[in-house]
Amino acid sequence: MKAYTIIKTTALILALITASITTAAAISCDCGDICVNETGWWRDSGAFNASGAPIQDAVNNASSGDIICVNAGDYAENVEIATAHLTLAGEGADVVTVTADSDDHIFEVTANYVNISGFNVAGATGATGISNAGIYLNGADHCNISENTASNNKYGIYLKSSSDNILLNNTASNNEGDGIYLESSSNNTLTGNTVLYNYEGIYLDDSSNNLIYNNYFDNANNANNVYDDGSNRWNTTVTVTPGSNIIGGPYLGGNYWSDYTGDDTNGNGLGNTSYNIDDNNFDYHPLCYLSEASVKGDLNGDGAITPADAAIALRLAATGAHDDAADVSGDGAVTSLDALMILQAAADMVEL
User: Fold this and answer.
1) Integer Cα distance of 273 and 270 in angstroms
2) 190: which strand partners?
3) How far apart are CA 62 and CA 250, in angstroms?
4) What is the mean pLDDT of residues 308-332?
5) What pLDDT sits at residue 57?
6) Strand 251-252 to strand 241-242: parallel, antiparallel, or no bridges (unpaired)?
7) Residue 299 pLDDT more than 90?
8) Residue 18 CB: number of other CB atoms within 10 A?
9) pLDDT tens per residue across span 74-122
10) What is the mean pLDDT of the chain?
11) Dihedral, 200, 205, 210, 214 alpha carbons, nearest 10
12) Taking 80 as the threshold, does the pLDDT of residue 6 lie above it?
């Protein structure tokens, strides 16, 4: 009887262990090929791998083409990425923070076609003369760096000998040196970035043929907005493009410069004179805030309220951008209600 009880108990324990192992091996990862949290990483329906450096270990175990999803949390790592066609997608710069040993970069990319988005990177300071950065591309081409915050580093985002990359909608703030630094890097596109509280906003060293537009540079907070010893394009094509810009205006053109002193006489949100960076580089369409005197609802500056203005208001609402002329409801925000009211005004149904 005792033997039977022992056998039955042993079988039950083995069954529980087997069930536990099966459950552990069936963790889902529904946002990509590999998931990461603060304590480890796993593949969809695969075993959990505990790690003290889970992002780096996930990268080390990834294959070209994999998407690595990083869950919200605080990570203390220096991550080196040498695998091409790899995507690191953080859950959001407001919830995923990666800090690092101050004597190294936080993300260092040496492979092509790498995408990094949704991270707050901080703490890459280093000793005097060390060029540590929050995100560092070294000989890396065709990468996409987007929706990140790089703060409290020596440099925010640093490209060295790296070309054909896209820097999109990043914020570089409170870095000791420069917010964005390009060294011997060409044919990159920088758009939608906000650069604040750095020594230089953006520094281009021996770098040419880069397209830089729709960025926000605040000279009141940067020691200097820009240094450029090459030849780069600081605005879109000569003909500006309709679309909500980084300060809520109705056109894409150049960049916003807080120290721009020109006028916007036609009220379209673009300066009438160029912003002169140096003798070789000019922003021919600097962005301006729309005048408080602008007609409510006339968002394209043509002197009339039309369905085109309603379409612009809808784009502003979708992107969360603000334009006083578009806030016809007076609630302090641009929403679909404002777009509807402008459309009704265009049809003479209401008066704004």
Assistant:
1) 9
2) 167, 212
3) 42
4) 82
5) 98
6) antiparallel
7) no
8) 10
9) 999 999 999 999 999 999 999 999 998 778 999 999 999 999 999 999 9
10) 87
11) 0
12) no
How do beta strands 40-43 and 34-37 pair? antiparallel
Domains along the sequence of the chain with CATH? 29-295 (2.160.20.10)
- Nearest C-alpha neighbor of 295 from the set 329, 328, 332, 335: 328
Q: Give the CA distances from residue 130 to residues 160, 162, 183, 249, 346, in Å, rounded to whole numbers and listed in that order.
A: 14, 19, 15, 39, 58
pLDDT at 19: 35
126 vs 146, residue with greater confidence: 146
Q: Give yes or no for a contact between 186 and 207, defined as CB atoms under 8 angstroms apart.
A: yes
Please give the C-alpha separations between residue 251 and each of 147, 244, 311, 345, in angstroms, as whole numbers: 22, 6, 13, 22
**Cα 150 from chain centroid (whole Å):** 9
CA-CA-CA-CA torsion sign (211, 216, 219, 224): negative
Q: Quick one: tokens of 201?
A: 């906003």
Residue 232: which region, alpha, beta or left (left: phi > 0; alpha: psi -120 to 50)?
beta
The rounded distance, in Å, linking the Cα atoms of 341 and 305 is 11
Looking from the CA of 271 toward its CB, the CA atoms found within 13 Å total 22
Residues 6+ apart with CB under 8 A from 232: 204, 207, 208, 209, 210, 211, 212, 281
139, pLDDT greater than 70: yes
- Tokens at residue 325, please? 């002329």
Residues in the chain: 352
Amino acid type, 213 = Y
Alpha-carbon span 318 to 300, nearest angstrom: 17
